[in-house]
Design brief:
Shape of chain B: globular
CATH superfamily of the largest domain in chain A: CPE0013-like
Strand order of the largest sheet of chain A: 8-5-6-10-9
CATH architecture of the largest domain in chain A: Roll
Number of helices of chain A: 2
CATH class of the largest domain in chain B: Alpha Beta
CATH topology of the largest domain in chain A: CPE0013-like fold
Strand content of chain A: 25-35%
Number of strands of chain B: 22
CATH class of the largest domain in chain A: Alpha Beta
Structural class of chain A: alpha+beta
CATH architecture of the largest domain in chain B: 3-Layer(bba) Sandwich
Mean pLDDT of chain B: 95
Shape of chain A: elongated
Radius of gyration of chain B: 22 Å
Radius of gyration of chain A: 18 Å
Low-confidence stretches of chain A: none
CATH topology of the largest domain in chain B: FAD/NAD(P)-binding domain
Order of helices and strands of chain A: EEEHEEEEHEEE
Number of domains of chain B: 3
Helix content of chain A: 10-25%
Distance between the termini of chain A: 56 Å
Low-confidence stretches of chain B: none
Helix content of chain B: 25-40%
Distance between the termini of chain B: 33 Å
Largest sheet of chain A: 5 strands, mixed
Number of strands of chain A: 10
CATH superfamily of the largest domain in chain B: FAD/NAD(P)-binding domain
Oligomer: heterotrimer
Chains: A alpha+beta (123), B alpha+beta (476), C alpha/beta (417)
Number of domains of chain A: 2
Strand content of chain B: 15-25%
C-alpha cells in the first residue's frame, strides 16, 4: 500500500511517501529525520497524537489547569480522553509535571499538569 | 401593576430629554423601553451631529424646534458634562454643476434662520482643511456645526432624569394597550401592566406600532438604513471639520466626521428597507461610502477601520415632525417623524410638549431641589500623569487598565455599571466608557468585562449579554 | 508617583520579553525590569495549552505553559525584577511611564526593549458585511475563554481563516464536543502550518474550503448563519455560487498585527509591511536606545524563533546601555523577488553573524533563497518547499556582513509550484 503522510513531528511538515504491507518492510521517501520515519510508520498502522486540554482547579486565581499526555496516545482515544478529564478537579498548589494519572486510559502514558500554580492569588 | 402620572414609551433622545424635562415637576414619570439600555435605536446609531442643517423644509415645526434646540444645547451639554466639539462643517464643491446647488443651499439656510453659511474659494477651504481633494472648486463653510457622543448625550439626560426621580424600565417591551371610551386604561408590557395619566409615544422607529395600539395611527414609519465606518483614533489622515456633500446627481450625502472621541465616522448610506431590525452592512453600501468619501478626502486610510455599523432612521410617510395631543384618545401624546435632526431637536421637543401639557390644563408643580447637573465618568486616558496619580490615590482601581486600546480602567467600568440607569451588557459598558471600542474591538478586554459584569450584577457569566434579549456571549 | 532606575527595561513578560531580559542580564546589565500588564508571566503562551513549542530551542515538544515556565524560572534565577499588573502607558525620552493600582510609576532606563506582542485582526479590518450579533470571536479570544476561563463559546462553529490559532481552536472545540462545520480560507493555500491542518482539521474531518470567503453574517442577537462564496483569482466573491452554513459562532483567524501603540509614543519608525519597528540586526530601532523583539517586531510562526531573536535584542540592549555598542554605517536590507519582507530592514556592516528572517510571497517548491549585495550573491540556500506561513532564516557570516556594500537584497525563486 502507498500512503503520503504529512509529518507533524516538527513544523517543517515533511511529506513522507510510505510504501508498505507490514511495519517491518515499509519503504519511506521524503523524510527529514529519524523521528519522521517512526511517525510515518505509526501513521500508517496506529496513528498517535499528544493529548492536551485543561481541567478545573480550585484554590487559585486561575480556574483551569492545562494538562497533557507525556507521550502520544492512539488518535482514536482523543475524544474519549477529553470526556474522561471532565470529571477531574485539582486543587492548588500544583507543580508543573505533576502526575494526574500514570496510566491514562490504559495507555501506560501519563497525564500530567503543565503549569506550576501557587495557592491563592498570583505570585 | 405600576401606576404613574406620565409613561414615556421609548428611551431614545426624545424620550430621555422629555423625562429630564418632566423630572422638574412634582409628578411620577416612568420611561419604558424594549432595549436593555437607554439610547434608543436611531438615537444611538447615527453620526452624532448637532448640525445647523439647511435642508429642512422652510417654516416647518421641525425647522423651528431644531433652531431653538441648537441655541440651547451647548448649555445643556455643559450641565450634563456631555462632550461636544464645535468643529464646523465644510461641503466641498467638486463639480461645476454643484455651484448652483451650493448657492441654493445657502439661500435655503438663510430662510431657515441660519445666516452664517458661506461659499468660500478653493484656496481658503484647502487652507482650513488640507486633507480635502486639491481639485475642489470651492466649498460651503458652516462654522457652528457640532459633533457629540450621541450615546453619552442621551444617557446623560437619562441619568439626570433618574437622579431626579424618573423610573426607567428597561428590557420592557410594550405589547398592547387597553383603549376604550377615548382613554388608555392600561399599557401592557412584557414585564406587567402600567396605568398612566399620560402616555407619550416617543418610540422613534417603532412609533407607528405604538400609535396603532393607541388607535391613533395615520402614518407609517419607513426604516431607512445608513451604514457607517468608524476609523481608529490613530489613523494618519484625519479631518478637522465635518465634511459633507453638496447635493448633486453624483453625491449621495456621505459625511466624513471627526468625533469627540478622536475617531472618524464615515457614512451614511441611505437605503429604504422593509425590516426595522435590519442591521446588516452590505459590501455595496460600504463600497459606495468608500468611493464617495475618497473623492472628497483622498488620503483616508480605510484599512484603519475599527468597526462598521448600521443605523436605522425612522423616516415617516407623510414626511415631517408630528407632535400630537390626541383629541380622540385623551392623555395620549404621539411624536413621530423625528428624523436625524431629532438628536438636536429632542431638547426643544421636551419643552414643547411640557408647554403643551400645561396648556392642556395639567397642573405641573415645579419641585424643590431639582438637580440641573450630572457628572460624567472621569476618563483615565484623558488625564495628565499627575491627575492620574490623584485618581488612583482616591480609587486604586483607576490604576487597573482593563481595555488596553482605549486605556479604560476597572474603576470606570464599575462606575458605568453602578450609576443610575447603568450598564448591564458589554455593549452598554462600551458605549459609556469605550471599553472594547478600540483597535482590537474587545478581543483582549471582553473576557475581563464579562467577568466584571457577572460579578457586579450577581449573575453567572453565561448570563452576560452583548446586548439585547438573547445575545449571550457564552454557551451554557 | 514611584520611580525606578534600571539599565534595561523590557515591556512585556511573554516569551520575547523574558528571553530578552535574561539575555540582557547575562550580557552585563545590572538591573533589568520587566513590566507586564497581566498578573502572570508567559504572555499569550499561557493560553496556548497545546504541544508543539520548543522543538528547535529545547529539542523537545512542549506546551505553551511549559515553554513559558522554563523562561520564567530562568528569569527568576537571573534575578530579573517583574512589575506585574502594571501597564506601560508612554515612553518619554528615557523614561517609561507605567501605571498600576499604586499609582503612576516612572522607570528611567538606559535602554528599553519593546516586547508587547501582537493583536488579532478583526472583522472590521476585513470589512465582512452583515449584522453584528454576539458569537463572533477572534480565535485567540476564544482560546482564552476556553483554555483559561473554562467557558464554552457555542455549539456550531465556522472558522474564517486558516491561520494556526484558528486550526488549533478547531481541534480544541472538536474535543469539547462542539461541531466545527468548516474552515474557510480566501487564498488558494493554507495560511498556517501544514502539520496543523493534519492534526487539527483532518483528524476531526473538518472541511477546509480554500479560495472561499464569508460574504454575509446573519443573526440579530446571536449568530444564526454565515454565507460563504468561492472567490475568483482576484479574490472577488462569486455570489451566484454562495451558500449558507448554519452556525451560532464565527471564529476569525485572519492574521495578527504587532501592537505598536506604545512604540508610537516614542516616535519610532515603523515598517508599513511588518507593522513593527524597522530595526538593524541588533534589533535596534531608529531611536538607538529602543530595541524590539518578538511579535511586536514582526509576526513569527514559531516561538523558538522569537526566543532566539529576543536574546539578540536583550544582548545588544545591554551592550548599548553599557556604552559598548558602536553603531557603524547601516545599509538597507530589502525584500527582493518572491519575498514579502525581511527583518531586519537595516544592517550595520560589522563583525558578528547576521540572522535574516523573512517570509516568501507565495508557496512553491524547489526554492532557491539568495542574499546578495551590490557586488553579487553572498549566500544561497535550496529548500524542497516554502510557504508564506513559514518564516525562513538565512545567516550571513560576520565576515560577509562586515564587507557588504550598497544594499542587501533577499530573494526567493521557485522552480516548481
Amino acid at each position: 500500500m502507498k500512503k503520503t503522510v504529512t509529518c507533524t513531528v516538527c513544523p517543517n511538515g515533511c511529506e513522507i511517501e510510505v510504501d508498505y504491507t507490514t511495519r517491518e518492510d515499509a519503504a519511506l521517501m521524503g523524510y527529514g529525520c529519524k523521528r519522521g520515519i517512526a511517525y510515518a510508520i505509526d501513521e500508517c498502522f496506529e496513528p498517535k497524537r499528544t493529548f492536551t486540554s485543561s481541567v478545573k482547579i480550585t484554590g487559585s486565581d486561575r480556574r483551569m489547569m492545562p494538562v497533557r499526555t507525556t507521550a502520544p496516545i492512539p488518535k482514536d482515544l482523543l475524544i474519549k480522553a477529553a470526556q474522561a478529564i471532565n470529571s477531574v478537579t485539582l486543587e492548588a498548589p500544583v507543580k508543573c509535571g505533576q502526575v494526574i494519572d500514570d496510566d491514562f486510559l490504559g495507555t501506560k502514558v501519563k497525564l500530567v499538569t503543565t503549569l506550576t500554580l501557587e495557592r491563592g492569588d498570583a505570585q | 401593576m405600576i401606576k404613574t402620572d406620565v409613561l414615556i414609551i421609548g428611551a431614545g433622545a426624545v424620550g430621555c430629554a422629555l423625562a429630564r424635562e418632566l423630572s422638574k415637576y412634582d409628578i411620577k414619570v416612568t420611561v419604558c423601553d424594549k432595549n436593555d439600555d437607554v439610547g434608543g435605536d436611531a438615537s444611538k446609531s447615527n453620526s452624532g451631529l448637532f448640525s445647523t442643517s439647511a435642508t429642512m423644509p422652510v417654516g416647518t415645526l421641525e425647522c423651528r424646534l431644531r433652531t431653538v434646540a441648537h441655541s440651547m444645547i451647548m448649555k445643556i451639554c455643559e450641565d450634563l458634562e456631555v462632550p461636544v466639539i464645535e468643529c464646523g462643517s465644510i461641503a466641498p464643491v467638486l463639480y461645476p454643476e454643484q455651484i448652483e446647488s451650493a448657492k441654493g443651499l445657502i439661500e435655503r439656510a438663510f430662510l431657515n434662520g441660519v445666516y452664517d453659511y458661506e461659499l468660500l474659494p478653493a484656496k481658503d477651504i484647502l487652507d482650513m482643511e488640507p486633507t480635502l481633494n486639491p481639485e475642489i472648486l470651492g466649498g460651503i463653510y458652516s462654522p457652528r456645526d457640532r459633533q457629540t457622543n450621541q450615546f453619552i448625550f442621551v444617557s446623560a439626560m437619562a441619568e439626570n432624569a433618574a437622579e431626579n426621580g424618573v423610573e426607567f424600565l428597561l428590557d420592557c417591551k410594550v405589547t398592547g394597550m387597553d383603549v376604550s371610551d377615548g382613554k388608555i386604561h392600561r399599557v401592557h408590557t412584557e414585564n406587567g401592566d402600567i396605568e398612566a395619566g399620560w402616555v407619550i409615544n416617543a418610540a422613534g422607529l417603532y412609533c407607528d406600532e405604538i400609535a396603532k395600539m393607541a388607535d391613533e395611527c395615520d402614518f407609517k414609519v419607513n426604516p431607512r438604513k445608513g451604514e457607517f465606518f468608524v476609523f481608529s483614533n490613530d489613523t494618519p489622515v484625519k479631518v478637522s471639520h465635518i465634511i459633507s456633500s453638496v447635493p448633486s446627481p453624483k453625491t449621495r450625502g456621505v459625511l466624513v466626521i471627526p468625533t469627540v472621541d478622536g475617531n472618524m465616522l464615515i457614512g451614511p448610506t441611505a437605503d429604504d428597507v422593509e425590516d426595522k431590525t435590519d442591521r446588516k452592512t452590505t459590501s455595496e453600501g460600504l463600497e459606495s461610502i468608500k468611493t464617495q468619501a475618497l473623492n472628497m478626502v483622498p488620503g483616508l486610510h480605510f484599512e484603519d477601520t475599527i468597526t462598521q455599523f448600521v443605523g436605522v432612521r425612522p423616516a415617516r410617510t407623510p414626511e415631517g415632525y408630528d407632535i400630537r395631543f390626541s383629541e380622540k384618545v385623551k392623555g395620549y401624546i404621539g411624536i413621530s417623524g423625528v428624523r436625524s435632526t431629532g438628536l438636536t431637536a429632542s431638547v426643544a421637543i421636551a419643552f414643547y410638549i411640557v408647554h403643551g401639557m400645561k396648556e392642556a390644563g395639567v397642573t405641573l408643580e415645579r419641585k424643590e431641589g431639582w438637580k440641573r447637573t450630572r457628572k460624567g465618568i472621569v476618563s483615565f486616558a484623558d488625564k495628565t500623569a499627575e491627575e492620574k496619580d490623584t485618581l488612583i490615590a482616591a480609587d486604586p482601581l483607576y490604576g487597573k487598565i482593563i481595555c488596553r486600546c482605549e486605556q479604560v480602567t476597572e474603576s470606570e467600568i464599575l462606575q458605568a455599571i453602578h450609576r443610575p440607569v447603568g450598564a448591564r451588557t458589554l455593549d452598554a459598558v462600551k458605549r459609556r466608557v469605550r471599553a472594547g471600542m478600540g483597535r482590537c474591538q474587545g478581543g483582549f478586554c471582553s473576557p475581563l468585562v464579562i467577568e466584571i459584569l457577572a460579578r457586579e450584577l450577581g449573575i453567572p457569566e453565561t448570563e452576560v449579554r452583548k446586548r439585547g434579549e438573547k445575545a449571550f456571549m457564552l454557551d451554557k | 508617583m514611584k520611580d525606578y532606575d534600571c539599565n534595561v527595561v523590557v515591556v512585556g513578560a511573554g516569551p520575547a520579553g523574558m528571553a530578552a531580559a535574561i539575555s540582557a542580564k547575562k550580557n552585563g546589565a545590572q538591573r533589568v525590569i520587566i513590566v507586564e500588564r497581566e498578573n502572570r508571566t508567559g504572555g499569550i503562551l499561557k493560553q496556548c495549552i497545546h504541544a508543539g513549542f520548543g522543538l528547535q530551542y529545547f529539542g523537545e515538544e512542549l506546551t505553551g505553559p511549559e515553554y513559558a515556565e522554563r523562561f520564567s524560572n530562568l528569569a527568576k534565577e537571573n534575578e530579573i525584577e517583574f512589575l506585574l499588573d502594571t501597564t506601560a502607558l508612554e515612553i518619554k525620552d528615557k523614561t517609561l511611564v507605567c501605571v498600576n493600582t499604586r499609582g503612576i510609576i516612572n522607570i528611567r532606563f538606559g535602554t528599553l526593549v519593546l516586547a508587547m506582542g501582537c493583536r488579532e485582526r478583526t472583522r472590521a479590518n476585513l470589512t465582512i458585511p452583515g449584522s453584528r450579533p454576539a458569537g463572533i470571536y477572534t480565535a485567540g479570544t476564544a482560546q482564552k475563554l476556553i483554555n483559561v476561563y473554562g467557558h464554552k463559546i457555542g455549539k456550531e462553529v465556522v472558522i474564517l481563516g486558516s491561520g494556526d490559532i484558528g486550526m488549533i481552536m478547531a481541534r480544541r472545540l472538536s474535543l469539547q464536543g462542539v461541531k466545527v462545520k468548516a474552515v474557510i480560507e480566501i487564498m488558494p493555500y493554507l495560511a498556517g502550518l501544514e502539520r496543523n491542518k493534519v492534526q487539527c482539521l483532518d483528524d476531526f474531518n473538518i472541511p477546509l474550503m480554500l479560495s472561499h470567503t464569508i460574504v454575509d453574517i446573519t443573526g440579530i442577537d446571536r449568530v444564526e448563519k454565515v454565507t460563504v462564496a468561492p472567490v475568483d483569482e482576484n479574490r472577488k466573491p462569486i455570489m451566484e455560487k454562495a451558500e449558507t452554513i448554519d452556525c451560532d459562532t464565527l471564529l476569525l483567524s485572519v492574521g495578527l498585527i504587532p501592537e505598536n501603540e506604545l512604540t508610537r509614543t516614542a516616535d519610532v519608525a515603523l515598517s508599513g509591511i511588518t507593522k513593527g519597528a524597522t530595526v538593524n540586526q541588533y534589533k535596534q530601532t531608529d531611536k538607538p536606545y529602543i530595541f524590539a523583539c518578538g511579535n511586536v517586531l514582526h509576526v513569527n510562526d514559531l516561538v523558538d524563533h522569537v526566543s532566539h531573536e529576543s536574546e539578540d535584542a536583550g544582548k545588544f540592549a545591554a551592550l548599548y546601555a553599557a556604552g559598548k555598542l558602536d553603531k557603524g554605517a547601516e545599509i538597507p536590507v530589502e525584500a527582493g523577488e518572491g519575498v514579502r519582507y525581511v527583518c531586519p530592514q537595516k544592517m550595520v556592516c560589522a563583525d558578528g553573524n547576521v540572522d535574516l528572517y523573512f517570509r516568501t510571497l507565495v508557496p512553491g517548491r524547489n526554492t532557491t533563497l539568495t542574499v546578495s549585495d551590490d557586488t553579487g550573491v553572498l549566500l544561497s540556500k535550496k529548500l524542497i518547499r516554502t510557504t508564506p506561513g513559514t518564516i525562513e532564516k538565512l545567516t550571513l557570516s560576520g565576515e560577509k556582513a562586515k564587507n557588504a556594500s550598497g544594499r542587501l537584497v533577499v530573494s526567493a525563486e521557485h522552480k516548481g509550484a
